[in-house]
Specification:
seven-stranded mixed β-sheet, Aspartate Aminotransferase, domain 1, alpha/beta, Aspartate Aminotransferase, domain 2, 13 helices
Amino acid sequence: MLPVNLYSDNVAPAAPEIMAALARVDVGPAQPYGQDPESKALKAALSDLFGTEVWVFPVSTGTAANAIGLSAMTPPFGAIYCSETAHIETSECGAAELFTGGAKLQLVRARSGKMDVDALDEAIRKAGKGLAHRAQPATVNLTIATERGTVYPLKDLERIAEVTKRHGLRFHMDGARMANALAALGASAADVTTRIGVDVLSFGATKNGALNAEAIVAFRKDIAEELRYRVRRAGQVWSKMRYASAQLRAYVEGGLWLRLATQANAAGKRLSQGLVQVPDVRMLEPVEINQLFVEMPERVIAGLESDGIGLGRRDGGVRMVTAWCSTNAEIDHVVARAKVHGARAAA
Amino acid sequence: MLPVNLYSDNVAPAAPEIMAALARVDVGPAQPYGQDPESKALKAALSDLFGTEVWVFPVSTGTAANAIGLSAMTPPFGAIYCSETAHIETSECGAAELFTGGAKLQLVRARSGKMDVDALDEAIRKAGKGLAHRAQPATVNLTIATERGTVYPLKDLERIAEVTKRHGLRFHMDGARMANALAALGASAADVTTRIGVDVLSFGATKNGALNAEAIVAFRKDIAEELRYRVRRAGQVWSKMRYASAQLRAYVEGGLWLRLATQANAAGKRLSQGLVQVPDVRMLEPVEINQLFVEMPERVIAGLESDGIGLGRRDGGVRMVTAWCSTNAEIDHVVARAKVHGARAAA
Amino acid sequence: MLPVNLYSDNVAPAAPEIMAALARVDVGPAQPYGQDPESKALKAALSDLFGTEVWVFPVSTGTAANAIGLSAMTPPFGAIYCSETAHIETSECGAAELFTGGAKLQLVRARSGKMDVDALDEAIRKAGKGLAHRAQPATVNLTIATERGTVYPLKDLERIAEVTKRHGLRFHMDGARMANALAALGASAADVTTRIGVDVLSFGATKNGALNAEAIVAFRKDIAEELRYRVRRAGQVWSKMRYASAQLRAYVEGGLWLRLATQANAAGKRLSQGLVQVPDVRMLEPVEINQLFVEMPERVIAGLESDGIGLGRRDGGVRMVTAWCSTNAEIDHVVARAKVHGARAAA
Amino acid sequence: MLPVNLYSDNVAPAAPEIMAALARVDVGPAQPYGQDPESKALKAALSDLFGTEVWVFPVSTGTAANAIGLSAMTPPFGAIYCSETAHIETSECGAAELFTGGAKLQLVRARSGKMDVDALDEAIRKAGKGLAHRAQPATVNLTIATERGTVYPLKDLERIAEVTKRHGLRFHMDGARMANALAALGASAADVTTRIGVDVLSFGATKNGALNAEAIVAFRKDIAEELRYRVRRAGQVWSKMRYASAQLRAYVEGGLWLRLATQANAAGKRLSQGLVQVPDVRMLEPVEINQLFVEMPERVIAGLESDGIGLGRRDGGVRMVTAWCSTNAEIDHVVARAKVHGARAAA
């Protein structure tokens, strides 16, 4: 068995279907900057998927997708409402501030990573709309599969959409692990976007089997028109776009993305169910996708590390993330080793 | 024969060695964000190549490389001196302005794409250093293989470096077609960077056989330290960095990049030599690499287009760019067709 | 009696000494942009005041002073630590974000407007210094006379300075009501700046008798050098600078600023002592300067408003601010009217 | 006689009417941030002047007026067309780039400071509208009384307005010396703005008798709405706004501004007519307002300087600027001294 690495789902290699897609388009000349047939086919494929015309901008990272997307929805004097644990707040080194020209992130109280809808509503109401000394409410950002390993139920998404639209704001969804969320919810891509009024989506693929491509998906033509220029000046328009488009097209073709996510989620569940049998080990958050936050004795953590098993130490615990390629054997191995270390710890 | 496309060198597919490198690293888990062995090996390989320790930041496009690199060398109130035909001025939709926070590009008179050294010196001298109402001279940007298909001779590079350093500015090199320049000059990578005091280089690969990766190469540790954060907030740190690092490593390994560029340059020369035999066809610029600016009768242009041959219409002519994979058969086909159309035109 | 307006201290007119200073310099020609004798005298006067050479940049507002000052201390990828009630966070429409190029404000828990020193220390320690995905700790911002009407004791300032310097951050002080703070503390200007290592100060004057000038005071030459350009491109270098410099010079000459602040503070105390005698009226914060946050029955608030007395409704109460020109008669009138309305309310 | 200073018109003091206006409003409390009666009267006065409702934002400098005004008309990926000698290009240290978030200034060939209309038209036509790699044409900026001391004739203004609107761009006018231009043209304020479709005007006052206030005048409500926030976050909303509004109101009341400018222009003409009688002295540009560019022998320049007469050395000559308060005696003194020095020079 290869070393097991649960540090993140982005430690995994690319899925075979993604690699095959690269090979498929690696033939002869193709017009650059998205004027190639593969990129056009991608737009058609995603428009089908979302049940409406969408505009697709492949980019290299989720941070780029988030920050550039937000910049086309939020004026420099605007405020973006997001969870206090949102990736755009904690993990992007101020990318949203850079690309928007200095908009403000306004943090909304969250539980298990999910924004409190009432707190969101109140925050917008008290934001001072129309008062020149206050950043103006502009956008709501939400990570559908949250940074704490949970998923917004459809009902919550609908309520947040309602609050967003009632106040005249725009709705931005961070879909870094969107496939995992859909697999968990049993919902379609359209259910969580088109039907509730998402304006721009960061469409994640890299954490779930792609090699190095994500996409900004715009549901509004006016935003898409502005994005053309914003993506370009962000240095995010690949000349050989076909290699990004091919990854993304293969990713959704025949439901590959959902199959990969289902596997990752199942591995997460199996891991969670195994680990909680170890004395003094417990889940810090509900395990709804492939991301676990686990409290475990230091002896167990150190033991797993000395076994060469990759994991991420966080404040008060560890994060473990399974991937599209996690096997039962790997998961069972980790659980078995945790039991060994746990037994020693308890002894 | 596949359709011949000379619209740009970025219409070409990836070189087989680059594709093989992707497959090579597509195995098992690897730490994300450049903490993987392949990325470390890339740093070692490029440090060897340049004959000094360098810091390498793979990014997705040349625009990103240029603009982010410049942002770590130029304060928001700074001025960047560049040729009036520089890519950062004409073709990046204001990326340098975005990432620097509003620095000013100051255009220097150029001939065949090459900055006039005396004009550069004079522009800096008259810039108003120390006067608060003037953007402050900060950086010189130079594209070694220019946007007009020419290459700076070593002597010119040395003179520009001397002017740059004498005024206390920093030196930024756009190496989008660096391999083509080195092949033309018969110079080493160190000759045109380390030895003359380049501070930051945009290291191009995509136009010359890579799939979708370029790199910022920093020659100074203080700039590199700042780049860590600037690249991240630009959304340009791939999580699965190994796939970019592998491309770049394979690109330089065993001199692949120079072999590919030599082939592209040779094809450019062959094309040029063939075309000038067509009546009323002439080169608008010296052909020193793989990029031709050609004056030809409209009948010839339209004829080639109707043959399905890709080319780029520009003000007063066409641009034709050969690539690493251009074959003699393709070039000869284009020349033959041009002759056919030219004969009709002349008739 | 003129209508009494306690909406803010900036509703007050200019002090006679300030108006006289304008007239004094309104004679004949003077070099522009701060090259005039009055501006040079201002630098000397403030250097005397702070007991060290300082560099002075008059600007038109406190928001400009804060945001431009911070921009010369904080890289775009930096984090600024401030109280959750800081003016730069709540009341400047994102000015700090604009001028820094997108730095992040990190809010520190505060009580009565004063940052908790331990919370500040912990926030910096946990900020992820050196991690590329985190905004990098750069600057601490503190409003010496807080937005809640309190003043940091010298001991707290020293502790915050110690935390700031220990972590290698820069120290920015918002002195919008600095004179009121000094009057309350019985401290000198140097005590709260030079002696504890403040790097840049927003030196407020408008709220305390000036007409329309504030100043950025830099205590470090390197920061001052950068400010020259940043202030200019911010559009904050008056051509007829003498009129701003004259205001600021008169403001500190002979201790005028402290006399004015002492009067405003005394009026605040008198108002507070009077109001708490009204049934159901209480101070929401300690009254340490000229700014009161008062809980009072709606009947009393509405009554005062119908009397034409200016005040500011805030969440759960009213803000009342006395000024350099508040008279005992005015204060007593307000208290008397509150008692009348309070008696009705209680009845 | 006081020392004569022709270094710039901003070396002059404030006009007595402006000083009187300050005293007039320096009474009792007034709501801050433009909610005072004087600021409301200013809006009415300027709406009268321009013959349409306008929105007025007093700011502290012309640089602020220009850059913030442009930022509400130009997206970050936009291009601003201006004369190659435009103040926003040469003298504002990148303010337009800062406030727009990195828009590009595109320089248009000019003669005697006036943009060539055909060159403007061609530049916009060739700008690559709709091409993602090009900054998108957004705004035309024009200084009505140019940086070279000339004034656009009405016919030229109309042609530039026509080009601007035909291409769908917005029209920004820098009116730093607008009064001087109107006095020279014999035109009304509406003639050069409302009637030709100016969208935003930088309304200058400081160079022509005001103390320290300029204004952004918006002719469109949508732009004005955005300006409210942009001006605030620029740190350009004075709390004691009445002192700025009073200056601006007095400035236009009863035509004061035109009287002052007429006097400055007449002084400029007298100076010009006198100087050209000196051997080897000639005007480098037509003298149409109060600003002269003069070629004179070094002996004459040095002689005037040694007389204590202020002037501005420029490349190849000197700039001399008369002001609202320039007297015939002063002008005649300068001419007489030039003749003395010129006689020596010729001898």
